[in-house]
Amino acid sequence: MSVWRELLVWTDGTVYRWWTGHLSPKTRRRLYTAYGADNPATAARRVAHRCEELRQAHPRSEPIVEQMS
Question: How many domains does the chain have?
Answer without folding.
Answer: 1
